[in-house]
Amino acid sequence: MSNIPFTTLDWAAVEKTVHQGESGTAFWQTVQFPGLRIRIVEYKDLYLADHWCQKGHIVHCLEGSFVTEQQNGEKITLKKGMTYVVSDDLSSHRSSAREDVKLLIIDGDFLRNSDL
Fold this sequence. Notes:
Elements: E1 16-20, E2 23-33, E3 36-48, E4 57-63, E5 65-70, E6 75-79, E7 83-86, E8 93-96, E9 101-108
Antiparallel strand pairs: 1-2, 2-3, 3-9, 4-7, 4-9, 5-6, 5-8
Organism: Mucilaginibacter ginsenosidivorax
Protein name: DHCW motif cupin fold protein
InterPro entries: DHCW_cupin, RmlC-like_jellyroll, RmlC_Cupin_sf
């Protein structure tokens, strides 16, 4: 990851892209730096991710609540103000939401699992 100069993000000016889930829709606003991705993600319409993810993330719930399901069957509910953190390849997880949700998601090279 390279050094990032002092930068402000005006999320109102960042384009939303549409990502269909197994059910429902996710809208992403993405800012990409070398080795670092920052997103505002919204889940709508009874969202269920269409894949299991092994990527590391820092996920902070800004609005609503959602469930992160582990492939082993464990389910964790995150509500507004809660965060989860996981490194790459240490979890197989997917998200679902019964209500509209807004998340701040940060991922990048700093979450690589150094034990691999």
